[in-house]
Specification:
alpha/beta; 316 residues; 8 strands; globular
Amino acid sequence: MNIDKSTASADLYSGPLTFMGVPASTDASAASAAILGCPFDCGTHAFRVGSRQGPAAIREQSRLIRRYQSELADTDILSEIGVIDAGDVVLTPSRMQEAFEAIEEAAFRLAAAGTTPIGFGGDGSVSLPLIRAAGRVHPGLVVLHVDSHTDAYPVDPVHRYDAATQFTHAAQEQKVLATASWHVGLRGTTTRPDVYAYTSDLGYNIMTMREFQSIGQAEAINRIRETLEGRPVYLSWDMDVFDPSCAPGVCTPAWGGFSAREGLDIIRSLEGLNIVGADVNTVSPPHDINGMTAFLAAAVTHEILMLIWRARSDGK
């Protein structure tokens, strides 16, 4: 094999695996969005521990997503808005305080540069440091949390942080305006009684899956948009909001969730909202089947990036 010695080194060596092949970089000065891996889980689940491997799995499966979407975005949106992959936050699962501080600081540096961080969990607990970071840059932050659980449960006085209390802390710390925020897609069993009432007492709006289906998507989205429009929005997407038939590899599956088509369509219906931060969490590769949950998470991320692209294009 004859190799032209003038060939640039970049043509001979591949870089790290990134989301959809975007540049690996922590320079957010020209980036509208940045992927940030948060490979952390609390390790408290009875037997489904593995979401710390989620960021790598989502990146791996993102190779199945092409750059062009002929129906909705027939252009290379990733290049147009300068999406980068900042890699994973350096942390140690189980060292919660240190991990949360590192995630918050890493996300804050991206957000402070005018970039929208998109965190890859990890379990749902990573939403708290990501929200803390977004709130430092965007006062008046509101949350749209799409999940089968509220993750706004009462806090244990001894073990204060876990993957079921991140939105309790966010409300009590006044990092988000709870009365304008939403928990959508709620269903299934819980570990304790009165969790919906407790979430409502914190000020949050809730919409169960049954209510969503009863009033229909159009009316549901209208109600949600009424409180979110005109405000900086943090979108937290827990993959267990999907039915386990299309997203089996999650931490806490619950039957009766959205189909893949329904979930992706919901994201598209959020066009026009000011998304300033997001996360896609609870992908648990050890419990996945042929990477299908991670693949769907990558598709969710691409849809979120299209929202950011449309917002930036409209703002030109």
